[in-house]
Amino acid sequence: MFSASSASAAPSGTTGAPPGRGILRPVAALLLSGLVAAAALVGAGPAAADDPGRHHSGAAAVLDGLKTYDSAVLRIAGKNGAPARTQELPAGLFEMTVDGGGKLKTYCIDLHNPTQDQAKYLETPWAETSLSGNRNAGKIRWILQHSYPQVDDLAALADAAGTGPLTERTAAAGTQVAIWRYSDNADVTASDKQAEKLADWLHRNARTTKEPRPSLTLEPAAVSGRAGERLGPVTVRTDADQVSVSPPVDAAASGIEVTDEKGAPVTSATNGDRLYFAVPKDTADGTASLAVQATTSVPVGRALAGAGRTQTQILAGSSESTVSARATATWAETGAAPALTARKNCAAGGVDITAANRGDQPFTFELAGTEHTIPAGATRTVTVPVAEDQAYDFTITGPAGFTRTFTGVLDCATSGSVLDRESEGDAGNDIGTQSAQQSVPATTGSATSGLEGDLAETGGSSATPMLAAVAIGLLVVGGGAVFVLRRKTQHTDVE
């Protein structure tokens, strides 16, 4: 969808534009909250309704459950001289339903963290997940490419691995066990002998492979400039043969179009195409957003992170699925013209706020007690520290109601590595494993689906809502830090 708003319409949910003169007020605020944010931006203007804040590109899906699995045994080292103990848990394939159509099959790469029933997942770069610091991440992708379900001839897989007969359940369990050994450095074995042989073969033979490209993304996700110009370019990156560019729903009123490099309006694009926002001269300061969409198979090995705190997954198989991406543009008559984006920075332990100033004056703002100035034509990035597993909500507001919100959870480490801290105690390792054994029913399911669990989880329990409530309560007690983002103006500006 393409939508546009002018300054007088008080748009929200889009990248903030800088102040000009007269009624444009030179104030912008950046609010960092520790509470979980809503899934969509709230405010006036058509751009607000379809900007989720969290999701910029690729597939978005809902977790349906752990569908094809067998059991495994996790060995948990004791602390402070305590003996090691073992925990039985299910190991296998999850399924997800893609927003807009399609199905995904995934494995867990975050053993100790429980899943949440019907959790929302978003296609995410490795650098923004626990794979960012994992030197064996490429070996996990090799395992996915050389085992079930990518290799669905189980007789051939068993012959290659020398395992003996495999079923869908044991093949899934063996694959998951091999992945856990690299994703979580876990001491885990499959309960079934053939599944364990498969896990050993995969673990022993895995080779490093590259991270797959996103199914669909727009680069950059925000641009800015002056009315009367073509703002961009925004480059399409996709494995799909073609993506649709929705026509401007309000083009007749605004006159704003999405064009190619030659200025011709476009309704479709392919990989590498460069898109522009054509904003007519004298258009009131404002914002616009475009979305592109395609139907394609999501590449095997793409990570899927939860919109809230839930177990991180990695893609093992995909049907033809709906994927989408968004980009925004802002423009102003005079002054600074910032374009704002955000991304998780796992290496730095925070979220990067990037501001590109395409105006004719510097853009100055304060963030976490430090003043930053972005000269005209320059781009700067500020990293806001966020604690591991902490939800964040950054709302950047600008003049005349401009608003851009970024929300999510910083989940950059496997829960086991976080919960091993002395303050968590020895019981911390039980998260994600304690109730998993209880979720495995006594009877088996069909040959195609394996054992059917009641709750989509490698772990998870009835205590999860209470734990979430306690966590939110602690965040409320701790409070959220408030940062001010403001544009400096001349003394002659009207307040």
Which residues form runs of ≥5 with pLDDT under 50?
1-53, 418-495
Number of separate strands: 27
Specify the helix fraction band: 10-25%
Strand percentage: 25-35%
Distance between the termini: 35 Å
Mean pLDDT value:
75
Structural class label: alpha+beta
Q: What is the radius of gyration computed over CA atoms, rounded to a whole number of angstroms?
A: 24 Å
How is the main sheet built?
7 strands, mixed
Architecture overview:
There is one protein chain. This protein has 495 residues and is of the alpha+beta class. The chain has a domain at 61-205. 16% of the residues lie in helices and 35% in strands. The protein is built from nine helices and 27 strands. It has helices at residues 46-49, 137-145, 154-161, 168-183, 193-205, 251-254, 415-419, 436-439, 464-478; strands spanning 3-6, 28-33, 57-58, 60-76, 85-98, 103-108, 120-124, 188-190, 216-219, 222-225, 230-238, 243-245, 257-259, 268-269, 274-278, 286-297, 303-306, 313-318, 320-331, 338-345, 350-357, 363-367, 370-374, 379-385, 391-397, 403-409, 482-485. The strands form six sheets. Strands 1, 3, 10, 12, 14, 16 and 19 form a seven-stranded mixed sheet that branches. It has a six-stranded antiparallel barrel with strand order 4-5-6-18-17-7. It has a four-stranded antiparallel sheet with strand order 26-25-2-27, with no helix packed on it. Strand 17 (303-306) and strand 18 (313-318) form a beta hairpin. Helix 2 (137-145) packs antiparallel against helix 4 (168-183) and helix 4 (168-183) crosses helix 5. The two termini are 35 Å apart. This is Cys-Gln thioester bond-forming surface protein. Residues 419-457 are annotated as: Disordered. It comes from Streptomyces anulatus. InterPro entries: PLipase_C_C, Thioester_dom, TQXA_dom.
